[in-house]
Specification:
- The protein contains 5 helices and 2 strands.
- Strands 1-2 form a two-stranded antiparallel ribbon.
- The protein has one domain: TTHA0068-like (Hyaluronidase domain-like, Orthogonal Bundle), CATH 1.10.3450.10.
- It has 126 residues and is mainly α.
- The relative contact order is 0.16.
- Strand 1 and strand 2 form a beta hairpin.
- Helix 1 packs antiparallel against helix 2.
Length: 126
Amino acid sequence: MFDDCNQPLSDEALNGIVTFNAGEYYAQHDIFEALWANTDAPIRILYKAILQVGVGYYQIQQGNLRGAIKMLRRADKWLAQLPDVCRGVDVRQLRHDAKQVHDALMQNGLDHFDMRLLTRVKLVAE
């Protein structure tokens, strides 16, 4: 199903990751949503997963605990469908990081949330 995980990321997807990693979670949503909407290939699951992690992080920035938890849970369902590395994206690490953020929110809410948990999407060398 994920044979296209072996392909390189498009320039647009790389731009989305750069935007995500700059903490521009609202803007990354627009980039990945366009990528997701314009393909029917299985790779759209990767786009949707990154998009939703980013939206979860955006909700944290906005002080919306419920929205953040909701989006991180949705993202987890997409991330679970992907191999550990897809198009050079370290999906395993993203899965771990998003779960860590979710668990911290569940345990402490936003009042004592450590914003340093909002980590970057990592790429692996191929």
